[in-house]
Amino acid sequence: MDILKKHYEKLILLLLLLIFIGLMFHVLSIVKQTGEIQDRHLRIPTREPDYKTQDPNAEGFDVDKIFQETSLSWVNPGPRSKSDSGVYTDLAYVFKIVKCPFCGKLIPRKYMDEMQVCPFCSNKEEGGANFVKPPEDVIVPAIPDELRQQYGLNSNDPDCDFYDLDGDGFSNVYEYMMQTDMGNPRIHPPLWHRLRVIEVGRIVLPEKFVLVNMMDSDDPKQWELQIDSSGMSNFYTIGMELEIDGRYFTIESVERQAGAGPDKKDRFVATMKNTENGQTLRLATGEAIRSFSDKAVLQDVANKRQYTVVVGDTVSVGDRRSGTETYRVKEFDIKEGTVLLENPSNTENPTVDENGTKMLITGSGRIPPALMVKIPQPREDMPGGVPGYGNPGYGNPGYGNRPYGNVRRPGR
Questions:
Q1: CB of 153 within 8 A of CB of 165?
Q2: What domains are there in the chain, each with its CATH number?
Q3: 340-350: per-residue pLDDT in tens?
Q4: Deepest of 77, 109, 130, 169, by most Cβ within 10 A of its Cβ?
């Protein structure tokens, strides 16, 4: 024990030295083994593929049959939670994506199928309105090269199928599908195909009560009310008359509500009375004004012209180039968001066109988004920077997209 007490420090140092020497030998052994590793030791053995090469041009090539006869399958692990259904997952999860028509970003198709709003832009261009249910997927055909040469289309331009060669508002590929003449503006699909429904029911009116200029006075009779209509601002005071949705109202009073607005700012409420039937209308600053009766807003996708119609109105679609076609609004389906048209000159079956198709307009329109007209982009390899395809038209440079067409009401 005395020896241990006297020399315990030396014994500890000796033990540590022995451990160090042992570790050094172990490291040298690892280095030696590493130096002996060769490329063949790192090679992963390959195996024969479990599929057969298929020729898509073969006569018996059938995708559905091939998948049925093989063991190839994709097991979808599903979303991480019910609330994330169809959008997110911790593993590989396959879901359809689409391009938002307003901001152009790719989003899960779920937002359109369930008629929600874009998570990026909230459909700001449409005032925050929800998507309409999109049409079913469509297979876009390719125009044969012989037909492209016949009409002078440049096959080296990947978008040439989607331009509007004759300026009738339909893309070349859509006319090819409909078997009409893509080079003659007078031979085209029925013009009602260009229409889509923006809104049906008690629609939002262009009038909006914006603000009140108090004119440094507490007397409401001195205040000026700014009411915008179709981008134009007008100013009114108590006692003045204005037109809203075809009815005339007199402003009777204006009430100030402190901190009642959505941003905790003061809100103003104007009380108006109909000059004919005494109907009372209250307008609050910032709130949308809706029509007094059911209406529909239709849009011509070719020239962006909008038509506000009621049942019985007639709508003329087209222009001098393509010719015009007149339709009458037969009925609305507010729940489905559709508008049914009829041909006033067809007495036997007025709700179908010359092709036997029911003239039912939906929110997504008759033309699938994949077949819409594209506007040619400037290119350095072309004279003037822009493709020169035949006659200028909708979607082609040099064409003035004037808002042709009109809405007529019975008896006017």
A1: yes
A2: 144-201+294-412 (no CATH), 204-290 (2.30.30)
A3: 999 988 888 99
A4: 169
